[in-house]
Design goal:
about 300 residues; alpha+beta; Jelly Rolls; 8 helices; globular
């Protein structure tokens, strides 16, 4: 079962909320989050911007191709990714990524720091304003959830704050066309996410499945307005395996499926190492930028 947490409970009883979040991260790696402060009107506008983008002809999207960006920004054409190497087939989805919105003359961009690039934007009225507003709103929510993680791990509530004040987080619009029934077809192959937390908003169309700890797949439930939240491999390493990331996949939907994924990643120079009190390190320490680059290279290399 995937538990449901009400974010408004955090203000009433932070310790109890942190305990429930910690149990979810240990036992399933997934939970649904209701009662959050991200406005439904903003969610709907963001879905509408994605609809407008994906409806553009390919020649209008091609100049935004993510293959031209070293910073994981831009349009992802169908078939460009293969999240499950073992499946031997590319994902059947289209996507568009933005990151922290920086100007061309930002010192970090000029210096060529990892994942410090400019976003690319389609010529759609309101697109940039809407996506940056959504990015900021969900980033704040993700940072608040990390306070609960720190509490659950018996650290100061603000333990993670210095590592996420200028993050490599990615906002991704996704569109899955209806399945054709072809053998081996997949919307998104079985995988674990790369970062700390993923906050996913869906349109209610089915397809997302989560692997149970004991084996077998279950359909992720849909609660209107709720985020599907899961931990990623970066947080698993940080908690030294106390939290375990969970494989999930997207089956080809019956109708077009849309989702908005927000991947909460640390600052590029954040050192991901076993947290205090978690025992001998199971993984070597690594900077967040080096870890993210290694995962992205594997994904796009497999899908090339």
């Amino acid at each position: 079962m995937i538990p449901v947490l009400d974010h408004s409970d955090r203000a009433l009883d932070p310790a109890r909320f942190a305990d429930r979040l910690g149990r979810a991260c240990r036992e399933t790696g997934f939970f649904l989050l209701t009662g959050h402060p991200v406005r439904q009107e903003l969610v709907e506008r963001t879905f509408a911007m994605g609809d407008a983008l994906f409806a553009l002809p390919e020649e209008d999207k091609a100049p935004l191709d993510i293959a031209q960006s070293p910073h994981n920004r831009g349009w992802v054409r169908k078939g460009a990714e293969a999240l499950d190497d073992a499946a031997g087939t590319a994902d059947r989805k289209e996507a568009f990524n933005i990151g922290l919105d920086l100007d061309e003359d930002d010192p970090r961009v000029v210096a060529g720091e990892p994942f410090r690039g400019v976003n690319v934007w389609p010529k759609i009225d309101g697109f940039r304003d809407t996506l940056t507003a959504y990015f900021d709103a969900v980033q704040r929510l993700g940072q608040d959830l990390l306070c609960a993680v720190a509490t659950d791990m018996a650290l100061g509530e603000r333990y993670f704050a210095p590592h996420f004040d200028a993050p490599m987080s990615t906002l991704r619009l996704l569109s899955y066309p209806p399945g054709t029934g072809a053998e081996g077809e997949i919307g998104a192959g079985a995988h674990t996410d790369y970062g700390a937390l993923t906050l996913l908003m869906t349109d209610g169309e089915g397809g997302l499945q989560v692997r149970q700890r004991g084996g077998g797949w279950i359909d992720a439930p849909h609660v209107p307005g709720a985020f599907v939240v899961n931990i990623g491999d970066c947080l698993m390493r940080w908690t030294n395996g106390r939290y375990v990331s969970t494989p999930h996949r997207v089956l080809p939907p019956k109708r077009r499926r849309r989702s908005i994924a927000f991947f909460l990643d640390p600052n590029p120079d954040a050192m991901v190492a076993a947290l205090p009190g978690t025992g001998p390190a199971r993984w070597p320490a690594v900077t967040a930028a080096d870890y993210l680059r290694s995962r992205l290279d594997a994904t796009y290399g497999a899908g090339a």
